[in-house]
Amino acid sequence: MSVCIIVGAQWGDEGKGKIVDMLSEQANIVARYQGGANAGHTIVFDGKTYILHLIPSGILHPATQCVIGNGVVIDPVALMEEIHMLEGMGISIEGRLHISHKAHLIMPYHKMMDAAREKQAGSIGTTGRGIGPAYNDKALRIGIRIVDLLDREALGEKIRTNLAEKNQILRALYDVEPLDVDAMIDEYVAFDTQIDPYITDTTTLLNNALKDGKHVLAEGAQGALLDLDHGTYPFVTSSNPTSGGACTGLGIPPTSITSVMGVVKAYSTRVGNGPFPTELEDATGELLRAEGHEFGATTGRSRRCGWLDVPALRYSIMVNGISEIALTKLDVLGALDELKICTGYTLDGKTLKSFPADAQTLSRVTCEYVTLPGWRSSLDGIMAFADLPQAAQEYVNTIEQLLDTRVVWVSTSPNREDTFKK
Ligand code: IMP
What we know:
The protein is of the alpha/beta class. The chain has three domains: 2-100 and 199-261, Adenylosuccinate Synthetase, Chain A, domain 1 (3-Layer(aba) Sandwich), CATH 3.40.440; 104-194, Orthogonal Bundle (Adenylosuccinate Synthetase, subunit A, domain 2), CATH 1.10.300; 265-421, Adenylosuccinate Synthetase, subunit A, domain 3 (Adenylosuccinate Synthetase, Chain A, domain 3, Alpha-Beta Complex), CATH 3.90.170.10. It is 32% helix and 22% strand. The strands form five sheets. A ten-stranded mixed beta sheet has the order 9-7-5-2-10-1-11-15-19-20, sandwiched between helices. A hairpin with a 2-residue loop joins strand 16 and strand 17 (350-351). Helix 3 runs parallel beside helix 5 (152-174) and helix 5 crosses helix 6 (181-195). The longest helix has 23 residues, at 152-174. It is globular, with a radius of gyration of 22 Å. The two termini are 26 Å apart. The model has no long low-confidence stretch (mean pLDDT 95). The structure holds inosinic acid. Residues 11-13, 38-40, 124-127, 129, 131-132, 221-222, 226, 235, 237-238, 271-272 line the site of inosinic acid. The site of inosinic acid has 21 residues, from helix 4.
């Protein structure tokens, strides 16, 4: 048995979808453990682009089983759209997709409350997908779970109770029209009939698979620095993308985890608000955005771009227990004459020894940089580390040294084929 957890080591959008897709060929099961349709995993092969929000990236390998774990919050509309999109592209889902009966559902009022809160001052810059309000209800113990769809009467009662409160909040605080209870019950009952074949006890399924010696990839969404506990709170998502989240989000024991791979983009990006020490608000940032197509796969928003941030990554490696790195989007840096890497933070003239716990402090740090030469060329067609331009090899070797962690994969384009071992 083996479980490899794939985590985003930065603020999300590191290219996890591509790496999970590549590693899925060797996996029996790919299991998504947290987040919801706020994620956008892009996979490109055979000239086609697939953008997945909820279904694990392993679905594109016909022999791989896929699990949406209990830690995920499921938006029925997004899920059905994704199933139809995949079927329309000739990918068979039947018998391969397993959804936890313990997963919580995103309800229409979650999306409305997310959108309404975002209009208030001091917003986080969420994706507006209802993620925070859904996890909020989960913690308040008033959430509606997939298993609740089985009992129509109890479901109706739960939706009624929720709406009695939510309608008051929506009206009083956000001046939003009340939602219709019966229409909502009908919508979720109809959804139940559509997803019925996929619902199962995924905790037992996964643990039985592990007993049978199967190989599982646990797929995280977002990134470690957006983790509710360990990220740049309050500018974070509402779940735990860090590796610990895989155990609670799937119901597998910590003793089953065999490795943790961190996906690291060769520079940094962040969507939404919050501190970003290496951010480039200049022409270089613009160039990275244009070359790296740094626009959100879920919302289309422009991603903020900056240099690679070693203090943030060292913290991420520590919290996740990352033992190996997949380095993505190295090709994007070919557009620059020289490259900087942030090697440390200072605050009020003093070197910081650890990653700040509060966003306010992080927003005040000054970055120390090393400068490396760029390679100013395309990496098209390069299929081996030794064939990379000297400066590109030096950049990757420097990252390895600064992070004291092995880079095992290097990715040089969105295409499935353009990834090689270091
Ligand atoms: P939420 O997850 O929609 O509540 O958004 C909370 C924060 O996480 C915002 O800054 C979002 O931009 C960010 N976020 C959520 N999902 C992703 C993602 O998949 N990639 C990058 N940022 C994300």
